[in-house]
Design a protein that fits this description.
Shape: globular
CATH superfamily of one domain: Winged helix-like DNA-binding domain superfamily/Winged helix DNA-binding domain
Radius of gyration: 20 Å
Strand order of the largest sheet: 1-2-3
Strand content: 5-15%
Largest sheet: 3 strands, antiparallel
Number of helices: 6
Distance between the termini: 40 Å
Order of helices and strands: EEEHHEHHEEHH
CATH class of one domain: Mainly Alpha
Structural class: mainly alpha
Number of strands: 6
Length: 181
Protein backbone atom coordinates (compact mmCIF):
# COMPACT_ATOMS: atom_id res chain seq x y z
CA UNK A 1 0.00 0.00 0.00
CA UNK A 2 1.36 3.48 -0.80
CA UNK A 3 2.59 5.57 2.07
CA UNK A 4 -0.14 7.73 3.49
CA UNK A 5 0.11 11.28 2.23
CA UNK A 6 0.43 13.98 4.82
CA UNK A 7 -1.82 16.99 4.65
CA UNK A 8 1.02 19.09 3.26
CA UNK A 9 1.58 16.46 0.55
CA UNK A 10 -1.98 17.06 -0.57
CA UNK A 11 -1.33 20.74 -1.18
CA UNK A 12 -2.68 22.12 2.06
CA UNK A 13 -1.49 22.55 5.60
CA UNK A 14 -3.74 21.98 8.57
CA UNK A 15 -2.84 23.63 11.87
CA UNK A 16 -4.66 22.33 14.90
CA UNK A 17 -7.68 20.08 14.82
CA UNK A 18 -9.89 22.29 12.64
CA UNK A 19 -8.86 25.92 12.83
CA UNK A 20 -6.71 26.96 9.90
CA UNK A 21 -6.11 25.73 6.39
CA UNK A 22 -3.56 27.06 3.95
CA UNK A 23 -5.11 27.66 0.54
CA UNK A 24 -3.98 25.60 -2.43
CA UNK A 25 -3.18 26.88 -5.91
CA UNK A 26 -6.42 28.57 -7.00
CA UNK A 27 -4.15 31.17 -8.54
CA UNK A 28 -2.56 32.18 -5.23
CA UNK A 29 1.17 31.92 -4.66
CA UNK A 30 1.97 29.44 -1.85
CA UNK A 31 3.85 32.07 0.17
CA UNK A 32 0.95 34.51 -0.08
CA UNK A 33 -1.65 32.06 1.26
CA UNK A 34 -3.32 33.14 4.47
CA UNK A 35 -4.48 30.83 7.21
CA UNK A 36 -8.23 30.90 7.21
CA UNK A 37 -10.61 29.93 9.99
CA UNK A 38 -12.73 27.15 8.56
CA UNK A 39 -14.12 25.81 11.84
CA UNK A 40 -17.71 26.67 10.84
CA UNK A 41 -17.32 25.14 7.38
CA UNK A 42 -15.79 22.01 8.90
CA UNK A 43 -19.18 21.46 10.57
CA UNK A 44 -20.90 21.62 7.16
CA UNK A 45 -21.26 18.18 5.56
CA UNK A 46 -21.52 19.51 2.00
CA UNK A 47 -18.28 21.48 2.34
CA UNK A 48 -16.40 18.57 3.88
CA UNK A 49 -17.70 16.08 1.30
CA UNK A 50 -16.74 18.45 -1.52
CA UNK A 51 -13.20 18.95 -0.16
CA UNK A 52 -12.81 15.19 0.25
CA UNK A 53 -14.04 14.68 -3.32
CA UNK A 54 -11.50 17.17 -4.67
CA UNK A 55 -8.66 15.59 -2.70
CA UNK A 56 -9.79 12.14 -3.82
CA UNK A 57 -9.94 13.13 -7.50
CA UNK A 58 -6.51 14.76 -7.31
CA UNK A 59 -5.10 11.51 -5.93
CA UNK A 60 -7.08 9.39 -8.43
CA UNK A 61 -5.42 10.61 -11.62
CA UNK A 62 -1.80 9.77 -10.73
CA UNK A 63 -2.87 6.44 -9.23
CA UNK A 64 -4.69 5.42 -12.43
CA UNK A 65 -2.15 7.02 -14.80
CA UNK A 66 -1.07 3.65 -16.21
CA UNK A 67 -4.63 3.05 -17.45
CA UNK A 68 -5.31 6.70 -18.31
CA UNK A 69 -8.72 6.45 -16.63
CA UNK A 70 -10.92 9.19 -15.26
CA UNK A 71 -13.14 8.57 -12.21
CA UNK A 72 -16.24 8.37 -14.43
CA UNK A 73 -14.58 5.88 -16.81
CA UNK A 74 -13.63 3.77 -13.79
CA UNK A 75 -17.24 3.87 -12.57
CA UNK A 76 -18.51 2.91 -16.03
CA UNK A 77 -16.14 -0.07 -16.29
CA UNK A 78 -17.00 -1.41 -12.85
CA UNK A 79 -20.74 -0.86 -13.28
CA UNK A 80 -20.82 -2.62 -16.65
CA UNK A 81 -18.68 -5.46 -15.32
CA UNK A 82 -20.96 -6.01 -12.33
CA UNK A 83 -24.33 -5.60 -14.09
CA UNK A 84 -25.77 -7.23 -17.19
CA UNK A 85 -27.82 -5.29 -19.73
CA UNK A 86 -27.30 -1.76 -18.39
CA UNK A 87 -28.92 0.93 -20.51
CA UNK A 88 -27.32 4.30 -21.17
CA UNK A 89 -30.19 5.97 -19.28
CA UNK A 90 -29.76 3.70 -16.25
CA UNK A 91 -26.04 4.40 -16.21
CA UNK A 92 -26.59 8.16 -16.52
CA UNK A 93 -29.01 8.06 -13.59
CA UNK A 94 -26.64 6.06 -11.38
CA UNK A 95 -23.69 8.32 -12.20
CA UNK A 96 -25.81 11.49 -11.83
CA UNK A 97 -24.84 12.62 -15.33
CA UNK A 98 -26.71 14.26 -18.17
CA UNK A 99 -27.25 11.62 -20.86
CA UNK A 100 -25.59 13.65 -23.68
CA UNK A 101 -22.43 14.07 -21.59
CA UNK A 102 -22.33 10.37 -20.80
CA UNK A 103 -22.94 9.44 -24.44
CA UNK A 104 -19.81 11.38 -25.47
CA UNK A 105 -17.71 9.35 -23.04
CA UNK A 106 -19.37 6.10 -24.10
CA UNK A 107 -18.71 6.90 -27.76
CA UNK A 108 -14.98 7.28 -27.04
CA UNK A 109 -14.99 4.02 -25.09
CA UNK A 110 -16.80 2.28 -27.97
CA UNK A 111 -14.33 3.67 -30.54
CA UNK A 112 -11.43 2.26 -28.54
CA UNK A 113 -13.10 -1.16 -28.33
CA UNK A 114 -13.82 -1.12 -24.58
CA UNK A 115 -17.62 -1.22 -24.70
CA UNK A 116 -20.34 -2.40 -27.08
CA UNK A 117 -23.75 -0.85 -27.59
CA UNK A 118 -26.89 -2.54 -28.93
CA UNK A 119 -30.64 -1.99 -28.96
CA UNK A 120 -32.30 -3.41 -25.88
CA UNK A 121 -34.43 -6.53 -26.31
CA UNK A 122 -36.56 -5.30 -23.38
CA UNK A 123 -37.17 -1.83 -24.83
CA UNK A 124 -36.31 -1.13 -28.45
CA UNK A 125 -35.95 2.59 -27.67
CA UNK A 126 -33.13 1.92 -25.18
CA UNK A 127 -29.47 1.21 -25.87
CA UNK A 128 -27.79 -1.44 -23.73
CA UNK A 129 -24.12 -1.40 -22.87
CA UNK A 130 -21.70 -4.24 -22.31
CA UNK A 131 -17.96 -4.67 -22.03
CA UNK A 132 -15.97 -6.17 -24.88
CA UNK A 133 -13.36 -8.77 -23.95
CA UNK A 134 -10.79 -5.92 -23.97
CA UNK A 135 -13.17 -3.96 -21.74
CA UNK A 136 -13.44 -6.89 -19.32
CA UNK A 137 -9.64 -7.05 -19.05
CA UNK A 138 -9.52 -3.27 -18.55
CA UNK A 139 -12.22 -3.48 -15.85
CA UNK A 140 -10.20 -6.16 -14.05
CA UNK A 141 -7.05 -4.01 -14.20
CA UNK A 142 -9.03 -0.99 -13.01
CA UNK A 143 -10.49 -3.01 -10.13
CA UNK A 144 -7.03 -4.07 -8.98
CA UNK A 145 -5.87 -0.46 -9.01
CA UNK A 146 -9.17 0.55 -7.40
CA UNK A 147 -8.61 -1.80 -4.47
CA UNK A 148 -5.22 -0.26 -3.67
CA UNK A 149 -6.58 3.26 -4.25
CA UNK A 150 -9.51 2.66 -1.91
CA UNK A 151 -7.18 1.23 0.73
CA UNK A 152 -5.01 4.35 0.43
CA UNK A 153 -8.06 6.63 0.59
CA UNK A 154 -9.33 4.96 3.76
CA UNK A 155 -5.87 4.47 5.34
CA UNK A 156 -6.38 7.19 7.99
CA UNK A 157 -9.26 5.12 9.42
CA UNK A 158 -9.04 1.81 11.24
CA UNK A 159 -10.96 -1.20 9.91
CA UNK A 160 -14.07 -0.54 12.01
CA UNK A 161 -14.08 3.16 11.10
CA UNK A 162 -13.76 2.33 7.40
CA UNK A 163 -16.87 0.14 7.48
CA UNK A 164 -18.76 2.72 9.55
CA UNK A 165 -17.72 5.58 7.25
CA UNK A 166 -18.87 3.76 4.09
CA UNK A 167 -22.10 2.74 5.83
CA UNK A 168 -22.77 6.35 6.90
CA UNK A 169 -22.11 7.64 3.38
CA UNK A 170 -24.59 5.11 1.99
CA UNK A 171 -27.19 6.17 4.60
CA UNK A 172 -26.71 9.84 3.72
CA UNK A 173 -27.15 9.07 0.02
CA UNK A 174 -30.29 7.03 0.76
CA UNK A 175 -31.62 10.00 2.73
CA UNK A 176 -31.79 11.97 -0.51
CA UNK A 177 -33.90 9.37 -2.33
CA UNK A 178 -37.51 10.38 -3.02
CA UNK A 179 -39.77 9.54 -0.09
CA UNK A 180 -36.83 8.98 2.26
CA UNK A 181 -37.73 11.81 4.60
Amino acid sequence: MPARASNSDMGRTVKGPSKALTAKANGAEPDSARKLDLSALRQTPGFMIRILQIENFEAFYPHFEALKLSPVEYAILVTLRDNKAVTQSELAAVLKMQLPNLVKILSRMEETGIIRRKRSARDKRAVELSLSSAGERRADEASRLGASFNAHTLAPLDKRERAAFLHMLARLIEGYRPGAI
